[in-house]
């Protein structure tokens, strides 16, 4: 199974990339525990910023962007993480998903995450990110993961799960959705398709 994590972090190192990596590790661990072979790949949007702008202007993706779009489209599962800018996802994050065909993510299992300096912005997951992927007809897992600065290294308390627990729960949910999806059918070659058409013919 192929898992793609899209990180819209702009700095190096980036807490957004760190959250994407932790989520990917959790999902991969759950899949392996269930007996599934799993591989992960991270798409760093900061490396594609110029290509995204070029595509929006010309309508044609440069090769690196085209490869990233193909990887996201073909993946069995998707993790998307953005920093919070002006109480929403970043412009680069939105622009990347603006270049996709509207039906490209239909039914794809998606885990949404975000990072910010304060917990006050955690609702960005519900008022911005979840509606975006619902519009793209993806299957968004119930648990979304927000990481504020104070969440790193926090174990939570009796009322609130800490970041590691939320990551484990979300990872389990995405792994379950990925494992439940039917495998894509192998495309028939031209000869097989012709034989099937001939077999379906009925003669009087």
TrEMBL record:
Domain of life of the source: Bacteria
Pfam family, one: FMN_red
Keywords, ordered alphabetically: Flavoprotein, FMN, Oxidoreductase
UniProt enzyme class: oxidoreductase
Organism ancestry: Bacteria, Bacillati, Actinomycetota, Actinomycetes, Kitasatosporales
Keyword flag Oxidoreductase: yes
InterPro entries listed in its UniProt record: CE1759_FMN_reduct, Flavoprotein-like_sf, FMN_Rdtase-like_dom, NAD(P)H-dep_FMN_reductase
Annotated organism of origin: Streptomyces lateritius
This protein's name: FMN reductase
EC code(s) of this entry: 1.5.1.-
Domain NADPH-dependent FMN reductase-like: from-to ranges: 1-152
Alphabetized GO MF terms: oxidoreductase activity
